[in-house]
Every structure is written in C-alpha cells, then in structure tokens.
Fold this protein.
Amino acid sequence: MNKKLTTHWPSYARSLKREAKKLVEAGNIKSLYMLIDKALGIGDAYYRAQALAWVARRIQEAGYDSSKYFLKAVETTEKVPQEWKRSEILVNIAYEMSMAEVKDFKPLLRAVESIDNEEHRRKAIKAVSRRMTKLGLKSRASPEPKAPIIAKSEKATMEKKEINTNIPPIKNKKKSITMGLYNTYSGKSLRVAHIRAIARAAPLCYAFNLNLSLFGFPVETPEEIVEKVENETRVGKEESYIKKLFEEGRLSVLDFPEKQFQSESGELVATTPHPDPRKKISIEKISISNSSFCLLMGLGNQGIPGNILKKVKYHLELTDRNIPLETCTAMGVLAAKLG
C-alpha cells in the first residue's frame, strides 16, 4: 500500500528563502516573482506568511518595491488560528521589513493590536516597536489591555476628556549594549560550536540586559537560530532565553561588518587581549556613555580578524592583564562586568 506523500511546509518555505537569496546574487530578479506564487501555494498559513516575507525582503533588497507582498504576508497571518503563533509570525515579518528598510508598519501594527491575549499582544508590540525604532520610526501601538465595552452615556463622557492611552512617541533612540559574536569558522552550515556558544550567550544577555548580535553566521533569520538552539541544546532548557531575546527584538543576525561596517547594533568595539593603546577603552567608560555599543568577540580559533581590529574605533581588554580568554569565558566576564 503506497503512502500519500505530503509536503513538509517548514522545509519548503526555507527552500524558497534560500532560492530567493541565490536569485538576487545571480541578478535573476524576474524569477523572484515566481517564488511569490510558490509561497502563496503553501498550505500552512504560518509558513505561507513567513515565506512571503522572506521573498519580499529579497525583492526590496534588489531595488524593487515589495510593500504589497509584505502586506499580503500580514493579511495571511489572520488565518493562523493560534494567537501565540500569530504574534510570533508578525514579529518575524517585522524583522524582515526592518532588514529591508520597509517603513510602512501600519497594517502590521493593526494586526498586532487585534491579538486578544494580553501577554502575546504586549510581547509582539514591544518587539515590533524595537524594529521600528531602529528605522527611526515612532510606534504609537498600545500594549495595554483592550478597553471593556461601556454604556453610551459613559462613552460620551469619556470622549469629552479626550483620553489618550497610546505610548508616547520615542524622542531619542535608547542606549543599548550588545554582545556581538563574530563567526570565524568556515563552512555554510551551523556547527555544534556555533549552537553551543549561542546557547550560552542567550541567558547571559537576558540576565544582564544585553542584546545579542550574530555576525557572519550561516543562517538567514533569528528564528532559525531559536529553532536550532531549542532543539539541539539543553542550556536554559527550563526557560528558552534565546526565544525571549527574539520575542523582545534583542536578537539579530547580521552580515560581516566589513561588508556593512556601520552596525545597527551600535559602535563596534573589538575585544582583544592585545589592544592598541590609542584605541583602548574601558568597561567603565562604555557603561556610563550615552552611546550604544556592540562588543565583538571572535568565535573560532582565529579570533577577530586583523582588518576588523584596524577598522574599529575602540579596543576592549577584559582581564587588565592581557590574558587571552576562551570565548564562552569572555562572554561571562563581559556580562558580569557590565551587570
């Protein structure tokens, strides 16, 4: 008896993402629109929305307007039955929009505000707001519980008072400190060393209020990292801190800094046991500064490449004795000193 073959939609969606990247690299832009049709054919609404957002980002990066495809991705989330999954996919779409520098977040914010569960809505609004802030946008979405139904007479009285429950606009970008892991391993797939290092970094970042940025890792999106860490490690198994970072918009996957040297995570600072005296900066100065910093650590035997050490404005030495530290040890020392 032959078994009916079914498509594994998560794998199919990721294959479209990989294909989209290859098409952009090859300059075959017309074929990208064929991927939109394939994405629309995905049977699971969650992965259909995700695939649409992935392809839309590549279309935008190729220099073409993809707003309508991002809008289609947002509309597709209405068919995701579980509210926690709907909030998660809306955050994923917000990430792709921010990376593509698409700034029309109004439909996405309306979709987030339609989530009934207060906890899921609050987390999603917080994560989306972080993405908007990175683009210089102001979020007026409210994370507060939805207002109860009131009598007409009460409503008329309240309207006269012009009550505003929205979050006030963000005047300045909030200072942040980010732990940046710089990948020096070769290969096009995640190694066990990658996953373990990320799994160890996540609870440290969450505990000491740091963001986490991954530079040059062989993945496309933060949700891939979350899935790998949750499935393949036991670090923080009782509570997924990598997922918490992602949900709060504090996890980023970025290209190598030499390709886009101005990091969205802040001023790049290289951690090294042999700092250039002219570039040396202390933890104390970083802590009291009003600027945002991304503290780079090399993951792998090579450490941070020499060209990066030359380009960055600052060097940070963690031991005060010029002693080299293994990456995971350095992460702990850094987090503790900043905490």
In short: Confidence is low (pLDDT under 50) at residues 147-173.
